[in-house]
Design a protein that fits this description.
The complex is a heterodimer of chains A (547) and B (307).
Chain A (H helix, E strand, L loop, with lengths): L9 E11 L8 E11 L3 E5 L6 H9 L10 E6 L2 E2 L5 H7 L4 E4 L13 H12 L4 H14 L5 H6 L7 H13 L5 E5 L7 H18 L2 E6 L2 H7 L2 E6 L2 E7 H6 L4 H9 L15 E15 L5 E15 L3 E5 L6 H8 L7 E6 L2 E2 L5 H8 L2 E4 L13 H11 L4 H14 L16 H13 L5 E5 L7 H18 L2 E6 L2 H7 L2 E6 L2 E7 H6 L4 H9 L3 H5 L8
Helix pairs in contact in A: 3-4, 3-6, 4-6, 7-19, 13-14, 13-15, 14-15, 15-16
Chain B lengths: L1 H28 L3 H6 L5 H11 L5 H13 L13 H36 L4 H15 L2 H15 L11 H31 L2 H8 L4 H38 L5 H10 L3 H29 L1 H7 L1
Helix pairs in contact in B: 1-4, 1-12, 5-6, 5-8, 5-10, 5-12, 6-8, 7-8, 7-10, 8-10, 9-10, 10-11, 10-12, 11-12, 12-13
The chains are: A alpha/beta (547), B mainly alpha (307).
């Protein structure tokens, strides 16, 4: 970590910032009486869970608060001006020139109908008098600086032709175009793969030391904080809980809430495997699947998503499938459950062939395999009461209505909700509670195999920890096989007995979690492991003890 | 790319064949054209002679085959009524309808699209509600009724606009405004919802963060992205414009193909009706082809998919 650039007075001075919520919201303020400063060339990480007000703080700085919110109170001093009291034209002069922002969804943050080059050039066209040819030179130079391959081709590309990591580099290039004093980064690496995340974090550190930009970095991930922060501010329910240097907050947190959050951060500590394993519930052999896509030049191209994958999973065992986006892990899951038809290979579930089944035989066999998806907000029908949603599966598979209802109630209790939840509707629950409901729904038909496809990736760390615990507990009670798909090695290490690393449609390495982490054989596994954010911090012996 | 166009072409031909066949079936099953032409009191030998003259004495299948052949080669035949070539009759009337349709379309676009944009930008406020009330009014009010109201007001009471006929800009005003109301209302609604969706997108926020001024964001970042649903609605509404023209031309005595169609149908002038149906169908198919092309122009992702 490089030393912060010498400072003279804070770059940003937030004093008593409050962002009121509209009447009828669950609390009066989204951000309440927040005061903090950010120095020149400093990286301040603002950490918090969903609803902590961290993003709204960033949006107040940029003047981008949703228009349905009342005006924020307090002041945000920047270069002698109060950002909350700028006129519209003053704001336009500052935005993109002195203040810049990078967003969470890099592909969605670029306008899909314009070439990438044109969008980056826009900043120069708006704020400088440079000619088109000069702007082009500048943009290419920027693309080089953020280490985009083949800058001239990227200039002409459309956003959908680039990867998420490339788009985020383009966004960072746009943000840095006019050398802003402050860069606000709102979860800039959350949507990216771990190795890409590691590269982007390194890029931001480099840019900070070459440009001296102050960076307000919003994240929910303490691993990222450990990699990048000079100072850390922890927020909860719109209030500042704790602020201090990175080492102070991470290693010696003062507030209880901070301690809880840090304790919930999944660590790269493989669990020791349960001794007794049952019969195999899943045997997949030689699964292949090829998708046809189109490339940048428009030629048709075939992508082999699965190239002859073999997987075996036993009753009571958890197999982690880890890999980056495009590695084929989700395709594998979808082939196993036959949401996608594999081109070749065989799937045997509970000693019965699953591939090749059609009609009622397939419907019947489907009961044995259930899946829990990533986004609990879209996975539940908003018009079905929770109890009905859970009972629906068993009823379809022939259980009398009364028994199905009773089973639903038992499951609701088993996943840690009140029995009265059965009569309520999905929108009345939080994300974590909804994921519990999804798990109950999947387990209602008593599957032999449960597939969890990034099922905890969208959840806050503390909730994530609870859901992982719930899955482990339910597995212990019901002895199903669990195929756990994740991009996060820390999460995988917490729950999986065995881990299979996927890359470009093949399992490159698999083995017991402890062994795989201790002695990775493949370079790719090693690369994945070293990209895990905050590893050095978590490996410190003093860290991670329960408070 | 060639495959894309081949598929489009084959589809177009099939659509036109369906239309032509449908017109044939409907016209032959809805009464005897000769009786309709000559009147119920015509002498039997007169009728017989007429049948022979127009080939109506042959079997239906033979009639169909020769009819499809003629249509495919662009020979629409002669009018049963006054024996003039159908094509000549249609071409004579087409400019009037084209003028009316184009004027109505321009009015609808000039009113509907900006109204939709403003409504989206002022979502939930008074402006939004007023625009939406007018939009509903626009497509809920039958246009013959609106036409009559306008004639009452501007021609009979105020006496500032001609109630019928063609020739000057003033003649064009009432019919085109009447014809435009439905499309304008629909466009306003769809523009509003398309804009609302786009305005929420992260790239709009990113554009603000770059310091792009408000109207530039709306016109250059939001509107082109909202254009796809808007263009779709325009394509679909072209049918409405044609259907509307039939009514409007009757109300305002506008000498276009709409009125020609009404007269030809009531007189069972088969050749003219068949020719008109084909002309209208070709117009619709072409309009939809242009819409497809516009999709590609508007969105690079669709352009790529078409290759």
């Amino acid at each position: 970590m490089t030393d912060p650039i010498p400072q003279t007075g804070p770059l940003i001075d937030i004093r008593h910032l409050s962002v009121p919520l509209p009447r009828g919201a669950d609390r009066p303020f989204a951000v309440e009486d927040l005061s903090l400063t950010l120095n020149r060339g400093e990286i301040l990480c603002v950490v918090g869970e969903t609803g902590s007000g961290k993003s709204l703080t960033a949006l107040s700085l940029m003047g981008l608060l949703p228009t349905n919110l009342p005006r924020p109170q307090g002041e945000i001093m920047f270069e002698g001006r109060d950002l909350l009291r700028l006129s519209r034209s003053e704001r336009l002069r500052l935005s993109g020139r002195r203040l810049a922002m990078v967003f969470q969804e890099p592909i969605a943050a670029l306008n899909p109908i314009y070439r990438v080059g044109a969008q980056v050039s826009e900043v120069f066209r708006l704020h400088t008098d440079l000619k088109a040819a000069e702007i082009r030179e500048k943009v290419i130079e920027l693309f080089r600086e953020v280490r985009l391959p083949d800058p001239e081709a990227i200039l002409r590309a459309y956003p959908h032709q680039l990867s998420g990591g490339q788009c985020q580099r383009v966004m960072i290039a746009t943000a840095l175009a006019l050398d802003p004093a402050l860069l606000i980064a709102d979860e800039p690496t959350t949507a990216l793969d771990v190795t890409t995340q590691a590269q982007i974090l390194k890029l931001m550190l480099d840019l900070r030391s070459t440009h001296g930009t102050g960076i307000l970095f919003i994240t929910h991930d303490f691993g990222v904080v450990a990699e990048i922060a000079d100072r850390v501010a922890v927020m909860r329910h719109g209030k500042l809980v704790e602020i201090g240097t990175r080492d102070a907050v991470l290693n010696d947190p003062q507030a209880d809430y901070t301690r809880q959050l840090i304790a919930a951060v999944p660590r790269l500590a493989p669990k020791t495997t349960a001794a007794v394993l049952g019969e195999p519930v899943l045997r997949a052999e030689g699964l292949t699947k090829t998708y046809k896509t189109r490339t940048l030049i428009g030629a048709s191209r075939e992508v082999a998503a699965l190239k002859g994958v073999d997987v075996t999973l036993r009753r009571g065992e958890t197999l982690g499938l880890v890999g980056e986006s495009g590695s084929g892990k989700s395709t594998l899951a979808q082939c196993v459950i036959r949401l996608v038809e594999p081109d070749g290979g065989e799937v045997v579930i509970d000693n019965g062939a699953f591939t090749g089944l059609t009609g009622s035989a397939l419907r019947h066999a489907r009961r044995k395999v259930q899946i829990v998806f990533q986004d609990p907000y879209t996975a539940l029908d908003p018009r079905h009461a929770v109890g009905d949603a859970i009972a629906e599966g068993p009823i379809i598979h022939g259980l009398p209505r009364e028994e199905a209802k009773a089973r639903a109630l038992d499951l609701i209790e088993a996943v840690g909700l009140e029995r009265s939840a059965a009569r309520r509707f999905p929108h009345e629950f939080s994300g974590g509670q909804r994921q519990r409901i999804c798990i109950a729904r999947a387990l209602a038909v008593q599957p032999d195999l449960l597939i969890a496809d990034e099922s905890v990736s969208a959840l806050d760390v503390s909730v994530q920890a609870q859901i992982l615990e719930l899955l482990a507990q339910m597995q212990k009670d019901l002895q199903f096989g669990l195929l756990f798909i994740t991009h996060d090695l820390r999460v995988a290490s917490r729950i999986c007995d065995r881990i299979a690393v996927m890359q470009r449609g093949v399992i490159v390495e698999q083995g017991p979690a402890a062994e795989l982490f201790a002695n990775p054989r493949e370079p790719y596994t090693r690369e994945l492991l070293s990209a895990v954010p905050g590893r050095d911090w978590q490996d410190r012996p003093s860290q991670g003890q329960q408070p | 790319m060639t495959r894309f166009w081949l598929i489009k072409l084959v589809r177009t031909v099939i659509t036109l064949w369906f239309v032509v066949t449908f017109a044939f079936i409907v016209l032959r099953t809805s009464g005897d054209p000769v009786v309709a032409l000559l009147g119920a009191d015509a002498m039997p030998d007169e009728i017989e002679h007429f049948r022979e003259l127009w080939g109506l004495d042959r079997s239906l299948f033979a009639q169909y085959v020769s009819y499809v052949g003629q249509m495919a080669t662009g020979q629409f035949g002669n009018s049963l009524r006054d024996s003039r070539p159908v094509l000549e009759i249609i071409l004579e009337r087409l400019p009037a309808t084209a003028q009316l349709g184009l004027a109505a379309f321009i009015i609808a676009a000039i009113i509907g699209i900006p109204a939709g944009i403003v409504a989206a930008l002022r979502r939930g406020r008074l402006t939004d509600r007023i625009v939406m009330v007018f939009a509903v009014f626009g497509f809920a009010l039958p246009n013959f009724f609106l036409g009559i109201l306008l004639i009452l007001l501007f021609s009979l009471y105020l006496q500032i606009l001609p109630s019928s006929g063609t020739g000057t800009f003033l003649h064009l005003l009432m019919p085109s405004v009447t014809l435009a109301t439905f499309t304008a209302g629909t466009l306003a609604r769809f523009t509003r919802s398309a804009m609302l969706e786009v305005l929420e997108k992260p790239y709009m926020r990113a554009a603000s963060a770059r310091g792009v001024p408000f109207w530039q964001r709306v016109l250059f970042h939001a509107l082109p992205n909202a254009a796809i649903p808007i263009v779709t609605v325009i394509g679909l509404n072209l049918g409405q414009l044609v259907a509307g023209a039939i009514v409007i031309e009757s109300v305002f005595a506008w000498p276009g193909i709409g009125r020609l169609l009404v007269v030809a149908v009531s007189q069972r002038d088969l050749a003219v009706v068949q020719g008109l149906v084909l002309v209208i169908a070709v117009t619709m198919v072409l309009a939809n082809l242009i819409v497809d092309l516009l999709y590609g122009l508007l969105d690079p992702r669709i352009r790529e998919g078409a290759k």
